[in-house]
Amino acid sequence: MNIPFVTHSPNDTLTLGEKIGQHLEIGDIVFLFGDLGAGKTTLTQGIARGLGVAREEYVRSPTFTLVNEYRGKVPVFHIDLYRIASSRELENLGLEDTFAGEGISIVEWAEKLFAEEDASTPLLGIERWIEIHIKIEEGESRKFNIKPHNIGSSNHPVFALH
Q1: 18-32, 38-52, 109-123 — which is least confidently predicted?
Q2: How many whole angstroms separate alpha carbon 91 and alpha carbon 105?
Q3: 3-161 topology per CATH
């Protein structure tokens, strides 16, 4: 099941992110895919708001720190894999505990989680996730496709987004 959305401004993208955040559950892992400047961090800022992270908390891309943690209703882990060069480097980060924890993880540049040999299954033991593909359209418009993987039940709140 693909759930499509289109936004026409960064503010629309924040609002969409907030709606997504309101529909996530503890343990959810959100993979973000999109070109540089597509709006991954803006969407993450909205998701964080939807998860109760204070509006005055500045949610920024952790490009150099790799992981930022924010406090909302549950812990929110914002992970940026842009600078990761290999699966070995990825495995040395110790993200398994983060993904298996009592929070929600949002991963920018999630394609780094997939081995070239098997592009259908992520590394690090991740078995269920929500994929969001972002495509830059004309001007500030963005097209989003949300696809749950192995969620297992249409009772998950993310299905209510449609």
Answers
A1: 109-123
A2: 16
A3: Rossmann fold (3.40.50)
